[in-house]
Amino acid sequence: MLETPGGQDYLVKVENVTAGYLSVTSFSSLTKTFTPVLRDINLSLRDGERVAVIGESGSGKTTLLKVILGLLKPVKGRVLIEGLDIYSSRKAWLRAVKKIGYVPQDPFKALDPRVKIKTSLMEPLETSRYSREEVNRLIKEAVKLVGLPEEVLEYYPSSLSGGMLQRVLIARALINRPKLFLLDEPTSSLDVSTQAQIINLINTIYHNYKMGILLVTHDLAVAQYLAERVIILREGRVIEEGFFEDVILNPRHEYTRLLVKSYMMEPI
Questions:
Q1: In whole angstroms, what is the distance from residue 130 CA to residue 136 CA?
Q2: Position 49 confidence tier, pLDDT thresholds 50, 70, 90
Q3: What are phi and psi of 97, to 5 degrees?
Q4: What is the SS3 assignment for the chain?
Q5: Which residues contact 225 (CB under 8 A, 6 or more apart)?
């Protein structure tokens, strides 16, 4: 675990990260232009802490998750998982990703429609040394953990509702009992009643296992139920952060004030 001079231990630490994408300027040119999406990002998350990164579409939320997952190397800065710089070597990255469970945004697109749910749940265990019996046990425990019957293991994704698919994604993310749980807009594609069920499920899992949770969302109302601390992201920069209640009661930035006003008008 990374220990800071102040004595706090951090599960995740993002230090001065700038990251983005290369794009070709025209079909007649081989020149590529770098477009920054994240600019000088600093954030941290302690073991067992729940943090929400909040911002509108295009603010850089999903790019931030890609950087933390080791899928997009920053042009500046570094990412530490339990003190390990994940971009220092492939070995470091492999060690780090084993500690992470990730739930992507769209449950309808995240699972291979050609394979059964059981096969999808096996994917995180493919590089492990578990026996076949242990793999089957872990898969059954995972679906039970998210409130699904064992029968769904023999179904294809097209046979399941959005809420059930989201539960499958959560089960897959948790099958290795990660220390860090990354959630990309976990309720955005679900109806209101199903959103509440998924929020309750995530909270139950958290209180049982106390892993660190980093959530990205555009919705302050969702953040209220899933995080104690919030980070406001706008145009790739952190403009405000603090405990949820502090940000709601005393927003300092005009953009945050607009978010809070919208939140007060349309509660979840």
A1: 10
A2: very high
A3: -65, -20
A4: CEECCCCCEECEEEEEEEEEEEEECCCCCCCEEEEEEEEEEEEEECCCCEEEEECCCCCCHHHHHHHHCCCCCCCEEEEEECCEECCCCHHHHHHHHCCEEEECCCCCCCCCCCCCHHHHHHHHHCCCCCCHHHHHHHHHHHHHHCCCCHHHHHCCHHHCCHHHHHHHHHHHHHCCCCCEEEEECCCCCCCHHHHHHHHHHHHHHHHHHCCEEEEEECCHHHHHHHCCEEEEEECCEEEEEEEHHHHHHCCCCHHHHHHHHHHHHCCC
A5: 199, 203, 268
Q: Are 180 and 211 in contact (CB under 8 A)?
A: yes
Q: Which residues of 238-260 are buried (b: 16+ CB within 10 A; e: fewer)?
A: bbbbbebeebbeebeeebbeebb
| Count of residues making up the chain | 268
Vertex 48, ends 145 and 185: CA angle to 5°? Answer: 65
**pTM of the predicted structure, to 2 decimals:** 0.88
Which residue's entry shows tokens 């994940």? 86
Q: 200 is written with which tokens?
A: 């309750």
Q: Are 262 and 255 in contact (CB under 8 A)?
A: no
Between 27 and 231, the more confident residue is 231
- How high is the pLDDT of residue 28? 64
Q: Is the pLDDT of residue 266 over 80?
A: no
223 pLDDT higher than 60: yes
Residue owning tokens 């953990």: 145
- How many whole angstroms separate alpha carbon 112 and alpha carbon 116? 8
pLDDT, mean of residues 205-220: 93
